[in-house]
Design a protein that fits this description.
By secondary structure, the protein is mainly α. It has helices at 2-11, 14-39, 43-47, 56-78, 89-94, 99-125, 127-137, 145-165, 169-211. It comes from Bacillus altitudinis.
Length: 213
């Protein structure tokens, strides 16, 4: 299934991948809004889930993200790359994006997914149901059991952060920092390759100019 997913991704341009991302996140926000209309009696019931002056946004939010990043780094050292390969989607999505665009995309992803999974599904049905729904939406990873376990474990961890704090800003911050760090890693990897490619191209042009004064 991952290989089939990879072949589909390879046929898409970078722009098409980003457009699909925007469409998916917009769809999540629309679904969240529609479900929220039925699940919350008042708008203030939803806004009460957001507490901007809570220091746990930094301590739990960023601290939780660092924990996930460290665990992920250990997994990448211990297990071969093919066991956590996602089919190239993230590389296609972030390798040519500017840093401001990456910040915006990862912030959008964090807000839209946490509003749906934590603010709507978990808030109304509990952590277990939210985790099951999340797992079902990521069924394409079942052929990569390690990747599937990692993705679902992170979702459960984000759910626990929300359970512990009761503040949606906390899992949003954790989700944002995790995605931002991983996306920037991809971008910087290709940044070096782009710079090397430009240097080689300049050297070739210079050599050609020297041959034909």
């Amino acid at each position: 299934m991952i290989e089939q997913h990879r072949r589909i991704i390879e046929k898409l341009t970078d722009r098409q991948v980003v457009e699909q991302l925007y469409f998916t996140q917009l769809l999540m926000l629309i679904v969240s809004f529609l479900l929220g209309m039925f699940m919350f009696d008042h708008w203030t019931d939803f806004t009460a889930l957001w507490q901007i002056r809570d220091m746990r946004i930094l301590t739990y939010g960023i601290g939780g993200a660092l924990l996930v990043i460290i665990v992920d780094a250990i997994v990448m050292k211990v297990f071969p790359a093919h066991m956590y390969d996602d089919g190239g989607l993230n590389e296609k999505m972030f390798k040519n994006r500017s840093i401001p665009h990456i910040v915006w995309l990862t912030l959008l992803i964090a807000f839209s997914e946490e509003i749906l999974f934590r603010g709507i599904v978990q808030q109304q049905f509990g952590l277990e149901i939210a985790s099951i729904v999340f797992a079902l939406l990521h069924f394409r990873y079942l052929s990569k059991i390690l990747l599937f376990i990692l993705v679902v474990s992170i979702s459960i961890f984000l759910g626990l952060l929300y359970e512990w704090t009761g503040n949606l800003f906390v899992p949003v911050m954790t989700h944002f920092v995790i995605d931002l760090v991983f996306a920037c890693q991809i971008r910087f990897k290709y940044w070096g390759r782009d710079e090397h490619g430009r240097n080689v191209e300049n050297e070739e042009k210079k050599a050609a100019a020297d041959k034909h004064p």
